[in-house]
């Protein structure tokens, strides 16, 4: 473990697998912290990403299991909402 790395701090106190309005559509990308992505609908941790392309530094828009269909519909229609990228 890197003793000089900043301590990990979650974005909110809500457990990752539960909805949180403060995390809706949030993608966290920063050196030294885990890559985190939250559902664009409910703010729970999202495992289904659309439009991610790390070679082009595109974080994508993410959806949880419950809302993945909505993401797929946006993807097909070209109407994906932009993620809110935080450090
Ligand atoms: Zn969701």
Radius of gyration: 13 Å
- Percent of residues in helices comes to 10-25%
> What average pLDDT do the residues reach?
93
Order of helices and strands: EEEEHE
Residue share in β-strands: 15-25%
Structural class: alpha+beta
Largest sheet: 3 strands, mixed
Identify low-pLDDT runs.
Answer: none
Total domains, how many?
Answer: 1
Termini gap: 21 Å
Shape: globular
- Total helices: the number is 1
Strand order of the largest sheet: 2-1-5
| Total number of beta strands | 5
Q: Bound compounds, please?
A: zinc ion
Structure description:
The model has no long low-confidence stretch (mean pLDDT 93). With 87 residues, the chain is of the alpha+beta class. The chain is built from one helix and five strands, in the order ββββαβ. The strands form two sheets. The chain has a three-stranded mixed β-sheet with strand order 2-1-5, with no helix packed on it. Strands 3-4 form a two-stranded antiparallel sheet. It has one domain. Residues 39, 41-42, 44, 63-64, 66-67 line the site of zinc ion. Zinc ion binds next to loops.
SSE topology sketch:
Elements: E1 26-28, E2 36-37, E3 48-50, E4 61-63, H1 68-77, E5 84-86
Parallel strand pairs: 1-5
Antiparallel strand pairs: 1-2, 3-4
């Amino acid at each position: 473990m890197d003793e000089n790395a900043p301590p990990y701090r979650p974005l909110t106190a809500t457990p990752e697998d539960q909805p949180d309005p403060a995390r809706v559509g949030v993608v966290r990308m920063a050196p030294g912290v885990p890559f985190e992505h939250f559902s664009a609908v409910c703010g729970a941790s999202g495992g289904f990403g659309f439009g991610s392309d790390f070679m082009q530094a595109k974080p994508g828009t993410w959806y949880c299991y419950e809302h993945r269909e909505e993401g797929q519909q946006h993807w097909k229609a070209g109407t994906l909402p932009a993620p809110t990228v935080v450090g």
